[in-house]
Design a protein that fits this description.
Elements: E1 5-10, H1 14-25, E2 30-34, E3 48-50, H2 54-64, H3 68-75, E4 76-82, E5 92-97, H4 99-111, E6 116-120, E7 123-129, E8 132-138, E9 143-151, E10 160-163, E11 166-169, H5 181-188, E12 193-199, E13 202-204, E14 214-216, E15 239-243, H6 246-253, H7 277-283, E16 291-296, E17 303-307, H8 315-322, E18 333-335, E19 338-344, E20 362-364, H9 374-392, H10 406-417, H11 441-451, H12 457-479, E21 481-482, H13 484-493, E22 503-504, H14 505-509, H15 516-522, H16 524-530, H17 535-546, H18 548-562, H19 583-592, H20 597-601, H21 608-619
Parallel strand pairs: 1-2, 1-9, 2-6, 9-20
Antiparallel strand pairs: 3-5, 4-5, 7-8, 8-9, 10-11, 10-19, 12-19, 13-17, 13-18, 14-15, 15-16, 16-17, 21-22
Helix pairs in contact: 1-9, 2-9, 2-11, 3-4, 6-8, 11-12, 12-17, 15-16
Length: 620
């Protein structure tokens, strides 16, 4: 009935979709198995993509040749660039999306991808022979053979939904959980744990009073995620902001005795940076109010996502508390919020390719690795799909460094440090933020994507054209001199000091009051040079020249630290032979099996002294 596939992907969430698309586009014969074809790429939580650090990840996925940026652009209803008041390293794109259109565009993209087949059924186990996965077993008892398997089970592995004192099995509202895989992996020797996440109630937007809320429109000149020619928005839907109050908090507190979280019925750990509303008012009792984002679910639906009101309290308590929020006095609920517990596998059991250490050709991606967030899942799926394809075609692993991408930071953190709570990407997790900006993701990664056969030749040529334009414009500006009699009047209007003599145009650009746009207004000669290039080239040249010294300093630091990556450690190295290593380091090294001294240095519990000892030992 089925041929042998190169790669079988289990689960069609954000991780599974990217994994299947990547492997298929690189030439593998791929099967995507999902429990429900109608929920492919479902936005289980809020209908949005990107945000701080997450927006950088979406642009990196796009630069490598993944689909998330393109799908987000095609389904967005609002675009905002966050943190524009800060430096470029902190700028983060975010889209509000049409939930139904997002899933539809993903399915259409996958159906139009060559080499990709689909099967709707639950996978209940893996076919493993001699420590190598060779296929999957479905709930109907069908065995489908594959050279590599990527598990992207999301919140479905033994998922349990909690609403007040009620709980029932489920991987998502109205969808059953998946069973069998966890038990088999534990029998093989994998360590498993439980985590939780939550979602807020959904509301009928027709029942809300927006006149008492703060409007949050999109950007006047909306951008987009993809470096391809996807269209920018011509019209946008606004989001809205309102706040809880003391009466809301009192009403919620009446349900605490029935809270599954406070009564210990939920065992899994939840994300501290995205707590439930009951957790917020319990942990931050001194705060009189908490922000609520009122987010539309799409162009043609009245459904509203109540961001900031995630809860697992009884449905009647949720309903009463919601109606005490300004603008929600007459709110009608579509469905209550809930918490969900699910199985995950500590990611220290993985290699940096996301292949498991215990079973060859088996890859984990997404929430199964203890992460949370669409973007974190999608980039793991992309990398697992790439590496599964490479493995079965005898190609080199594809691993991104911490200095190359936020994706590299995320995977390095997971594999070497693990996680005790749902892992989410923040800009603070990346030590090379000035290098890893959202605006230069194509310059950093598209050539790599092209070399592995994922990014198209057209994408690569576009990047080369952009680089050439940047080089030419930067050279022109560096050679140009500004004259006092021409620019001083405009400089004073900009609130910056006039120049007493001819100076380099670049020295003016480095002033905080002057961007590339203001520079063009100073002198018609300067304007003529700048106007020859598109906005992307202009922006890159401005950032590179304005922050040149900071970029160079960070680049040198990255090169210095990365020299440790050249010291390879054999997979079967016997750490017990190195008696000078601390017992904790020896235990961690034997379990994680780092591939290089650089990776070893980032493992929690391994000290600089341990690194020095092993470096000297290997040198001998």
């Amino acid at each position: 009935m089925f041929p042998e596939y190169d790669v079988i992907v289990v689960g069609a969430g954000h991780a599974g979709c990217e994994a299947a698309a990547a492997a298929a586009n690189m030439g593998s014969r791929v099967l995507l198995v999902t429990m429900n074809m109608n929920t492919i790429a479902q936005m289980s939580c809020n209908p949005a993509m990107g945000g701080v650090a997450k927006g950088q990840i979406v642009r990196e996925i796009d630069a490598l040749g993944g689909y998330s940026g393109i799908i987000s652009d095609k389904s967005m209803i609002q675009f905002r660039m966050l943190n524009l008041s800060k430096g470029p390293a902190m700028w983060s794109p975010r889209t509000q999306n049409d939930r139904m259109l997002f899933a539809e565009q993903w399915r259409l993209a996958l159906e139009q991808t060559q080499n990709l087949d689909f099967w709707q059924e639950m996978v209940s186990g893996l076919v493993v022979r001699e420590n190598r996965v060779v296929g999957v077993r479905t709930s109907l008892g069908i065995e489908i053979m594959g050279k590599a398997v990527v598990l992207t089970n999301g919140t479905f592995l033994n998922g349990k939904i909690h609403i007040g004192e009620k709980n029932f099995g489920g991987g998502r509202a109205a969808e059953r959980s998946a069973t069998g895989i966890t038990e088999q992996l534990i029998d093989i020797g994998f360590e498993a744990g439980r985590m939780k996440t939550g979602t807020p109630p959904r509301i009928d937007g027709r029942s809300l009073n927006y006149s008492v809320m703060e409007e949050q429109p999109g950007d006047n000149d909306p951008g987009k995620f993809s470096f391809t020619n996807t269209k920018a928005l011509e019209k946008q839907l606004s989001c809205w902001i309102t706040y809880t109050n003391e009466n809301v908090h009192k009403q919620l507190e009446q349900g605490f005795d029935k809270s599954p979280m406070f009564q210990g019925r939920i065992k899994g750990l939840g994300p501290r940076y995205c707590p439930s509303i009951e957790d917020k008012i319990n942990r931050f009792a001194e705060r009189e109010r908490h922000q609520i984002f009122v987010e539309p679910e799409g162009w043609n639906t009245v459904e509203i996502y109540v961001n900031g009101f995630s809860t697992s309290l009884p449905e009647d308590i949720q309903y009463k508390a919601l109606r005490l929020i300004p603008g929600f006095e007459n709110a009608k609920m579509f469905r209550p919020g809930y918490a969900i517990e699910y199985d995950f596998f500590p990611p220290t059991q993985l290699k940096t390719t996301l292949e498991t250490q215990l079973i060859d050709n088996l890859y984990f991606a997404g929430q199964i690795n203890g992460t949370t967030g669409y973007e974190e899942a999608a980039c793991q799926g992309l990398m697992a799909g790439i590496n599964a394809h490479n493995k079965v075609h005898n190609k080199e692993p594809f691993i991104l460094k911490r200095s190359e991408a936020y994706i590299g930071v995320l995977i390095d953190d997971l594999v070497n440090k693990g996680t005790q709570e749902p892992y989410r990407m923040f800009t603070s997790r990346a030590e090379y933020r000035i290098l890893l900006r959202q605006d230069n993701a194509d310059l950093r990664l598209t050539e790599l994507g092209y070399k592995i056969g994922l990014a198209s030749e057209a994408r690569f040529e576009k990047v080369l054209t952009k680089k050439n334009g940047m080089h030419r414009l930067a050279k022109e500006l560096q050679e140009m001199r500004a004259e006092p009699e021409v620019v001083n009047a405009e400089l004073e209007q900009l609130g910056t000091s006039p120049i007493p003599e001819k100076v380099s145009v670049v020295s003016l650009l480095r002033r905080p009051q002057i961007g590339i746009g203001e520079l063009a207004k100073l002198d018609s000669r300067i304007k003529k040079s700048i106007d020859k290039y598109n906005t992307e080239v202009q922006q890159q040249v401005e950032i590179n020249l304005k922050y040149e010294s900071y970029i160079e300093r960070e680049q040198k630091l990255a090169e210095k630290i990365e020299s440790l990556e050249n010291y390879k450690i054999l997979p079967d190295f016997d750490y017990d032979r190195v008696k000078a290593l601390s017992s904790e380091a020896r235990e961690k090294l034997k379990r994680i099996r780092p591939e290089t001294i650089g990776q070893m240095s980032r493992i929690s519990g391994v000290s600089p002294a341990d690194v020095s000892i092993l470096t000297v030992y290997l040198g001998k």
